[in-house]
């Protein structure tokens, strides 16, 4: 039934091409962005959760 409905709609094939193009452009853009990141930024971003945990532990141990 769904196959017959899609066959009756004219120009439905272009939607697949558009969707694939959008996916490819987005994936390519994200790949270029990730490859262009500086190593220092990645190290800093990777250690952020650990730094926050250390700060919270220090606050918990300091009772006034």
Structure description:
This protein is mostly helical and 64 residues long. The protein has one domain. Helices cover 84% and strands 0% of the residues. The model has no long low-confidence stretch (mean pLDDT 78).
Which terms would index this structure?
mainly alpha; 64 residues; 84% helix; 0% strand; 3 helices
Spell out the blueprint of helices and strands:
Blueprint: H1 2-8, H2 13-36, H3 39-61
| Tally of individual helices | 3
User: Could you say which structural class the secondary elements and strand pairing correspond to?
Assistant: mainly alpha
Q: Please, how many domains? A: 1
Radius of gyration: 25 Å
| Largest sheet descriptor | none
Helix content percent band: over 70%
The end-to-end span amounts to: 72 Å
The number of E-state strands comes to 0
Q: What is the mean predicted local confidence, pLDDT?
A: 78
Beta content comes to: under 5%
- Overall geometry: elongated
Which H/E pattern describes the elements? HHH
Residue stretches low in confidence (pLDDT < 50, at least 5 long) are none
Offer a quick outline of the entry.
With about 60 residues, this protein is mostly helical.
